[in-house]
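INPUT
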Amino acid sequence: MKHFSKQARFAISGLICLHVAVLSAGFLAPYDPTEQNRSSVLRPPSTLHFVHLRPFVAGADGHDYPLRFFITGSKYRWFFGSSSVTHLFGVDQPGRVFLAGTDEFGRDQLSRILWGGQISLATGWLAALLALTLGLGWGLIAGFFGGWRDTVLMRGAELFLALPWLYLLLTVRAFLPLSLSPWITALVMALVIGIIGWPRPARLVRGVVLSAKERDYVYAARGFGASSWHLILKHCLPQTYRLMATQAALLLPQFILAEVTLSFVGLGVGDPAVSWGSLLAPLRQIAVIGSAWWMALPVLAVIWTTWCCSLLEDNWKYTGEAG
Amino acid sequence: MFRRYLLRRLLHALFLLAGISVLSFVLLELAPGDFLGEAKLNPQLGPATVAALRQQYGLNQSLPQRYARWLGSLADGSMGVSFAYNLPVSTLLWPRARKTLQLTVTALLLSWMIALPLGVWSAAVRRGWLDRFAGLATSLLLALPDLVLACLALFVAVRAGWFRSNSAVLPVTVLVLATLPTLLRHVRSAIFDVAGQAHVRAARSQGIAGAQLWFRWLLPAAANPLASLFGLSIAGLVSSSLLVETILGWPGLGPLFLEAIAARDFYLVIGPVMLSAAFLIGGLLLGDLLLYLIDPRIRIQT
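OUTPUT
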């Protein structure tokens, strides 16, 4: 971390915290994201009050329930497969703690925000990985060999970039089957986003390779009989690392947002599965935001992600020449 | 010379549009299900009726046949038939496009009118508190995506009781806020770059200052990136407001497009896609032409 600037370090720690929180959603969230409480619909966030430094939650029945840590609750599954019943915090039944309020089915918003991040972040990462791999691969080949490969890349990229990104995304997604299981939907979204998103990194990589292959040491290596693949992997590829890092920081929030947008307009995951996009969908109903401000809280998760990434991208873009 | 350049670029744009139309037809063809897929499940419609509808809409024809028919409908201006509305696409598309353009053109003019003086000013008072404040505000706004910005604006407006349906104030504000930071940054950095150049320093050392320096030296030299940027703004006129319109309930192209997607209304999807692509290509072309007219260096290169 030492060679990162202060700003970049802040952004990276912010992103790490976010990912840890989302990955351990089951442990941090007090309830299952689909668990409905018909008796506490659209409940505002519970207030904590402290008695002798111990936190208490006011229950609907007038009793106060102490906030307990490492409490046994509903069963959940960790991302690595093993399941557990221990939650970081909670209150004894029949008390309930809703730190971020509940939605129109009485589901805990905090649990939903944490769990919803899994599909959003996974889709974003997968799509970014796909777009960067495709872009890097084709960019390297097109830039190095030129000729028809270059023509195909440039014409193809032009076609993709001549369509407004959102229109392209929605059109492609719209004509794929809609009702799939949530993780299959996430995979489909990631594929669509990644395939639409590759031309931009590919063009940039091509530009870097075009200048990298004209360097003297590349000519020297070629003179010594190095094969094309050796030149590409040993001399051109390392030149693109900085660009790839910046592109990753640029594409990741863009692709997470693409997932959020798709789910928001109803082309992504829907109930009962949860993602940040489907969490934001109720915000289109004026009655909901008029009465329940906590329904807007998922926005903060999205803002945090995009802000950290944009800090990072900004930082890497301007220090690019130095590094 | 200019005419040849223009002709070449126009031909290129036409080829691109043709490519996009073929691409969208193929993409939509690969997709499972069509508009009548749901009609088949409707017990009130017999199989004979569905087959007749299929015949009428031309859905039983092959892809090239349908593409040819669509090209023909472009020629008479109808752009195909919407299955859901049973109307020519153009009668649905144009009123909605006009609504969208009302919004985006207003936002475009406003944001340029704010960004140009503010960017120039913040470049002039560089390192001052105003510049720093503008930098902070733009970086914050840049990190806010359209979707989030529109949601937040709706939230604030509803909570404060300002929300009026069918009023353009809120969508225009969101669009201006969404485009302003990018514009400001570019205007500021364009002026910055120019201010350090040798010919400007030479002019300054000869005692040229004030308005003369700005209008004869700085602004003309900084115009290049701004011309490209203006082209980009034009390019997004139809497509940039999709989410804002959808969230804030403005009856523009965005809601129509999403509706058409949900209904699998083939030609009604193609219409907005082609329109937005045409604007994108046209806007970029306009930016390049402006550059060509402004900057003699580019004329020599091409």
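end of record. The radius of gyration of chain A is 24 Å.
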